[in-house]
Amino acid sequence: MANPSGNVLSVRELRTEFRGGRGNVRVLDDISFDVGRGRIVGLVGESGSGKSMTALSLMGLVPKPQGQVSAKSINLDGIELASISPDGLRQIRGRDMAMVFQEPMTSLNPVRKVWEQVGEPLRIHQGLGRRAIRDRVLEMFELVGIPEPKARLDAYPHQLSGGLRQRAMIAMGLICEPKLLIADEPTTALDVTTQAQILRLMQELRDRVGTSIIMITHDLGIIAEMCDEVNVMYAGQIVEQANVFDLFENPSHPYTRGLLASIPKSTESRIARRMPSIPGMVPNLARLPSGCRFRPRCTDAMAICQTREPAVTDLEKDHRARCWLHARQDAISQGEPL
Amino acid sequence: MSQSAAVTNDLPEVIEEASFLRDTMRGFRKNRMAMVGLVFVCLLVFLAIFAPIISPHDPYRVALDEQLLPASTTYWLGTDNFGRDVLTRILYGARISLVVGTVPSLISLLIGTFMGILSGYMGGKTDFVIMRLADTMIAFPSLLLAMVVMYTLGANLFNIFIALALVGWAGVARVVRSQTLALKEKEFIEAARANGTSRVRIMFSHIFPNVTPTLIVLFSLSIPEAIMWESSLSFLGVGVQPPEASWGLLVAKGKEYLFQAPLVAIMPGVAILMTVLAFNFIGDGLRDALDPSMKD
Amino acid sequence: MNEIVISARNLTKHYRVGGGTLAGQGKVVRAVDGVTLDIRERETFALVGESGCGKTTLGRIMLRLQEPSGGQISYRGQDITALDDAGMRALRKKLQIVFQDPYASLNPRMRIEDILAEPLRTHGYGSAEVIRDRCAELLDMVGLRHTYLRNYPHQFSGGQRQRIGIARALANKPDFVVCDESVSALDVSIQAQVLNLLSDLQDELKLTYFFITHDLSVVRQFADRVGVMFLGRLVEVGRTEDIFAGPLHPYTMLLISAVPRADPRQRTRERPLMTGEIPSPMNLPPGCRFHTRCPFAKDICRTHDPDLQDMGQGRAVACHFPLNS
């Protein structure tokens, strides 16, 4: 957080809970991170880690009343979202902050023409007429590299390939020139070659238009490829936060290390077939283990990990981890939160 | 295997046995309207079974000096045109109406399920023949079809069963067929095929258990329908024959005295209405309880 | 060299889509279009390709879960395309499949016990008691507790269900197992666990795997040989190391280069990308199927469809101008 004014988004202590029949489940706990202007920030984790829930919480799309979002602060370029009204948030959604979803087929209405849907945010937020919207959509189609953009305007979603649909979704996300684009697994449903095209498109948009992007993915390859900063999530918390180079060269949290080790290395030739893997599985959020959430799967677990939840420790500039291994010695002995 | 051992270590020793029935019951109990419906139906079944003991009068005793009496302490709901106690007639009518509600539904469910699974899983010519047959049944105005059956075979309870089953199976078959088609594409069916499991076994032990939730709901919803059918047939004079009592018949006969003694026609009608509603609530409750996506 | 377990000769699978009586003939999709392939005992053969290339269909017709439109499949020298229903059912003991979706591949209304016992009962494995013991043994084998026999699939996580799916496939001690995207739906850390399990089981039970996947990094770690499929055809076959070290087909090269690397110092920004879209299998271009997207296409590629040619050392490629040669 070197330069607070340089941040498009600044989230502090975001918590999301779900009320259920058997008590409340906290699906997000103490989420704090920043997105710098023109930066691509990654949220990486396995299913159930809370990465998509973070996006939904930011967008105000958590289903109510079961879901309850609270935060000390969610600052989107000067606007405080933590205390905004639902109407205010509706104004911001699609205009200042937009989202691209995983499944480009189901997020488009099959019976409406593509241009009408892509231009929808313009109608809602800027009240433009059909002619103006159509022109603007055409510009966006050119920007996101849809071939023969004129001809595609009047297409229906099923007439486009998966890659083109995702390009259209990105065009829709960017059409109001939002300050922040949240991309939730935008390439998971696509083939590798198409994925590479979409990823490159997003990088180019960042370079040309200066869009700030939150990239949500389970794929560390995409993180390495795309992101400037990375937040590693596990069981509803950010367990490690670092610059992408630091993270890959000097992973500090045992979970990050385990994740990095278990990626099949496509650059090394196969020496032994046995892959390092993290034992066990992601805990049920309704029945979290005592102390550190990763402790049951951790090979470095100590006595303290059993009893107390680790606090966040600064390792070096902009690199922090939620792990007792790195906590200051005095903090461990005194048992004080950092 | 070292790796397998590593995995086993942090697995719980035993996972609590799940029971499909228990989960469903839990979901069902949460639904208040469905529980009200269930209590009502249980009460009704009890009253119907013990009608001879409970009912205050003889349902067939004719007392011409006590025709069309208004409600009183002796005759809680008054008497009909033959001086018979309306409450007693309704209680006895419940016996026939409930049997008519359940038996033909079961028969049409049985036939419909069999035909539907066969049609959906086998496909091709079998599918074509069964579905065209079902189309034909559905294309007939059902009431007309049932009346034709009743006229040809004669009006008695057994023939009502046949008539209603004949009308009902095609709808069930269609629903079951479409479910079977969806299930057929599932990987677990393909896995069974890959194991060399025979087609008959796949239909019975893989597809059938997966359509049972639908069947239970269809059953609970078809009971009120059958009661209505029986009422219509009896009302038109081709159903249950006097002096037997069924609710539909009671309404039909009572309507002639609607202005002198309104209770004679209205009360059996109320019984029909409440029973049909109760079964509908149960059906809705079951549908929600059986839908795994509705569970927490 | 090991004995050939499965041998496919000129397999094809054509579907007719659309076209009722009114719309005329409709179009033909060539999902699999002339695949010839030998798979040897105890090897892991990975079939790689993008969605719609026909890899799943090829896996299914090799087990005759779908009927091929043409060609022949032999299992240890026996032509299985000629077998009748009963003969094929008996042979299913030896030819098995592990599916992609751990949620859809187990019957939600059956207990684990019944799921595992079904193939055993079908092939007359033994008495009820023998079968129960075997089920418990199978669960142990895949790293689950045998106390779970009475549970239902929904009580398990995706990774655990996939283990159960593997146990079911291995119930009758098969010889040849098709793994259709068997780890694709799993999280990275669980994926590694399951891959390790598969490779342990291969050593222990002398299995041959036909591993269908779109994930090249898994292939590199796991497979002995690789076949790259594009629009119904094999375009390149070879040993895993050779293919990754020097792909001969331009499509293989682009496919490998498109995989994001988990190393921020090796970003793909400078690597070549495949441009545009893959043609539809309904509307194949003349000549080489890849020429519309190939950066190296020449005139002959637009008119002549290249055959899969043997390049020596177990390598084959279908390209008029193989790379690195």
UniProtKB/TrEMBL annotation, chain A:
Annotated compartments: Cell inner membrane
PROSITE patterns: ABC_TRANSPORTER_2
Protein name: ABC transporter ATP-binding protein
SMART domains assigned to the protein according to its UniProt record, in alphabetical order: AAA
Organism superkingdom: Bacteria
Family under the similarity heading: Belongs to the ABC transporter superfamily.
Gene Ontology molecular function terms on file: ATP binding; ATP hydrolysis activity
Natural source organism: Fuscovulum blasticum DSM 2131
TrEMBL record, chain B:
Gene Ontology cellular-component terms listed: plasma membrane
Superkingdom of this protein's organism: Bacteria
Annotated keywords: Cell membrane, Membrane, Peptide transport, Protein transport, Transmembrane, Transmembrane helix, Transport
Subcellular locations according to the entry: Cell membrane
Residue ranges constituting the ABC transmembrane type-1 domain according to the UniProt record: 94-283
Pfam families noted in UniProt: BPD_transp_1, OppC_N
Membrane topology: Multi-pass membrane protein
Transmembrane segments: 34-54, 96-121, 133-151, 157-176, 207-229, 257-282
One GO BP annotation of this record: peptide transport
Sequence similarity: Belongs to the binding-protein-dependent transport system permease family.
Stated name of the protein: ABC transporter permease
Source organism of the structure: Fuscovulum blasticum DSM 2131
From TrEMBL, chain C:
Key words of the record: ATP-binding, Nucleotide-binding, Transport
Protein's GO biological process: peptide transport; transmembrane transport
Entries under PROSITE patterns matching the protein: ABC_TRANSPORTER_1, ABC_TRANSPORTER_2
Keyword match DNA damage: no
Keyword check for Transport: yes
UniProt topology in membrane: Peripheral membrane protein
Record-annotated ABC transporter domain positions: 6-256
Main location: membrane
GO cellular component: plasma membrane
Cellular location(s): Cell inner membrane
One Pfam family matching this protein: oligo_HPY
GO MF, any single term: ATP binding
InterPro entries for the chain: AAA+_ATPase, ABC_transp_ATP-bind, ABC_transporter-like_ATP-bd, ABC_transporter-like_CS, Oligopep_ABC_C, P-loop_NTPase
First and last residue of the signal peptide: none
Stated family: Belongs to the ABC transporter superfamily.
Protein name: Peptide ABC transporter ATP-binding protein
Organism, as annotated: Fuscovulum blasticum DSM 2131
